[in-house]
Design a protein that fits this description.
- The protein has 251 residues and is an alpha/beta fold.
- The chain has one domain (10-247): 3-Layer(aba) Sandwich (Rossmann fold).
- It contains 9 helices and 7 strands.
- The chain has a 7-stranded parallel sheet with strand order 3-2-1-4-5-6-7, with helices on both faces.
- Strand 5, helix 6 (155-174) and strand 6 (180-187) form a beta-alpha-beta unit.
- Helix 1 crosses helix 7 (207-220).
- The N and C termini lie far apart (42 Å).
- It comes from Streptomyces bacillaris.
Length: 251
């Protein structure tokens, strides 16, 4: 449950090495979150993330979680919830893929879709059911502006995020009145270590900015946040641009 100051006391991160997720965890720990689960594939990076958050004062545990292994989601995540109530679940796993390669290798494209959409549907439903059973909590879903309209440059990734976004919207509607909040986060391109050295993209943001928007959205019990906020207006317009014109835009 949230403490007397309204801050969540426990956090479960699905995608425990995500830079956005870790930036969010740091902010929440600074706001009195004390118990953190980092779920992801076992790796030195996952262990290092746990050490860093422990150094910030949190009780941090890691759990082996694979988005693609949907048959294990109920068991793995059920054990986490069995340890005590979870105030916030942050679904932060996903892969961008490589558009050119994925067009040539359909199995690689399928992996993008299965990770970003199928895995998220499975884990999202498991967590939503557990949050509903405990009667409170928030499920934060990292979507993307790429899901708002398919672009030639990344339509495989964008289509997977479009499916995820639609799923999260419907799940939020299904959970109305249960005490469970679903917060959809739609960031623009995020500058991470992996993107260092690449050309700057329009409406680029940072993990820290996305984390700040998540914390604010949780406090306000928002349904959707855009990062940066100006993307809401931009995408509202781009959504209605005729396709022949849209193809020529530098987006």
């Amino acid at each position: 449950m949230k403490d007397a100051f309204g801050a969540p006391q426990s956090l479960l991160v699905l995608g425990g090495t995500s830079e956005i997720a870790l930036a969010t965890a740091r902010r929440l720990i600074a706001l009195r979150t004390r118990r953190v689960w980092l779920a992801g594939r076992p790796s030195p990076a996952l262990d290092a993330a746990a050490v860093e958050l422990r150094d910030r004062g949190a009780d941090v545990r890691t759990v082996a979680f694979d988005a693609l292994d949907t048959d294990t989601h109920e068991e793995v995540l059920g054990k986490v919830f069995a340890e005590g109530d979870i105030d916030v679940v942050l679904m932060a796993f996903g892969v961008t893929g490589d558009q050119a390669r994925d067009e040539e290798e359909p199995t690689a494209a399928v992996r993008v879709a299965q990770t970003n959409y199928t895995g998220a549907v499975s884990a999202g439903l498991v967590c939503a059911g557990a949050l509903q059973a405990q009667g409170h909590g928030s499920l934060v879903v990292l979507s993307s502006v790429a899901g708002e309209r398919a672009r030639r440059a990344d339509f495989i990734y964008g289509s997977s995020k479009a499916g995820l976004d639609a799923f999260a919207q419907g799940l939020g509607d299904a959970l109305q009145g249960t005490g469970v909040q679903v917060l959809i986060v739609r960031p623009g391109p995020v500058r991470t270590r992996a993107s260092a050295g690449r050309p700057e993209q329009p409406f680029a943001t940072t993990p820290e900015a996305v984390a700040g928007a998540i914390v604010t959205g949780l406090r306000r019990r928002s349904e959707t946040v855009w990062v940066p906020g100006s993307l809401r207006v931009v995408m509202s317009a781009l959504r209605h641009v005729p396709r022949p014109v849209f193809r020529r835009l530098p987006v």
